[in-house]
Amino acid sequence: MEVSVASIEYSQVRKGMVIVGDDGQLYTVVDRDLNTPGNWRAILQLKLKNLKTGSIAVNRVRPQDKVEQAYLDKREMQYLYKDGDGYVFMDNETFDQYTLQHEMVGELMLYLKEGEKGHIIMYEGKPLSLELPATVELKVIETEPSVKGATAAAQFKPAIMETGLKITVPPFVGIGEMVAVDTRTGEYLSRAK
Known about the structure:
Layout (H helix, E strand, L loop, with lengths): L3 E6 L8 E3 L5 E10 L7 E8 L5 E6 L4 E6 L1 E11 L2 E6 L5 E5 H4 L11 E7 L2 E6 L3 E9 L13 E5 L4 E4 L8 E5 L4 E5 L2
């Protein structure tokens, strides 16, 4: 597999990305935490998982330093069903099925319904991480009743989507409605068209 790389600043590194470590090995970013203590320089703490060994290390870096982002094989797959502690996806071209473990994709799965598609990042034939579409449409299953004549300026209210995702929605959105959600921020965008 060809791994193409691009140089980015550490400040642009996000969860799920794959970067090339100082040792030349590939690491997937499990978590990131930016600390800016008062007048001190910002420190970015990255939790990195070595793709070969599976071991996890915590790395402290300066946000402005450069790092190579690796672009791995990306395939569109359809989410079929949850199976124990994993989620089964099917490659739309080969019909091969892959199981992604909960710790790899846990919170991301709150955006995907069965039958929906996402991109699975593959490395040496193994699924590594999931990339969501920029927006998804989900049904509201729990929220306060919609308020007649409510203006959009009124306070947003909590709502629970069919996948268990919790977001806030405008007061005019009711139970049973489909809404568009931004998968990067978890924010309500609009009623689904």
